[in-house]
Amino acid sequence: MIHLHDKTFEPFISSEEIDFAIKNMAKQMDDDFFDEVPVFIGVLNGAFMVLSDLMKQYRGMCEVSFVKMASYEGTQSSNNMKQLIGLNQDLEGRTVVVVEDIVDTGNTVEELKAIFKEKKVKHLKIATLFFKPEAYKKDIKLDYIGIRIPNKFIVGYGLDYDGLGRNLPDIYQLAQ
Q1: Are 83 and 117 contacting, i.e. CB atoms less than 8 angstroms apart?
Q2: What is the spatial distance between Cα 27 and Cα 30, in angstroms, rounded to a whole number?
Q3: How far is the CA of 96 from the CAs of 29, 73, 135, 167, in angstroms?
Q4: What distance lies between CA 41 and its chain's CA centroid?
Q5: Quick check: 119 pLDDT over 70?
Q6: Which domains does the chain have, with CATH numbers?
Q7: Cα dist. 134→39, 61, 97, 137 in Å?
Q8: DSSP 159
Q9: What count of other Cβ atoms lies within 10 Å of the Cβ of residue 29?
């Protein structure tokens, strides 16, 4: 058990399970992009650990960049999306892989899809380490999913609760 602010969290997914999921995602990407140089774009702040570990496993040539969006306030996903930091590079005609730490409602994915459509990318792929199918409300295909989880609030491995918990190597879920 760990305590962050006013909440208690219990162990949920081990760092070994996370490593296994990331290796599987990287292998799929190696196979899919063997003849391309994709641009991997991590969604900050949460995806910094996912993208770092994914890039250590990905064997092909690639470029890496980041965008920063905000969608959480406390433990609830909010519906007011806003882009905080945009991209500076030209992505027209390129294959882009958006790397998320977690996809729940899909609001961030929808916003990113609209942004990259404007940038005229050749292919847009969505990768997420954690996916909450019960919470997902969009009709946008997720191309790479590491681990499917129930609709519970989690912290660790880049995910936080009001700023705390991002540095934890394992995933913890809100205790009942």
Answers
A1: no
A2: 5
A3: 12, 28, 25, 27
A4: 10
A5: yes
A6: 15-71+85-151 (3.40.50.2020)
A7: 29, 35, 24, 8
A8: B
A9: 24
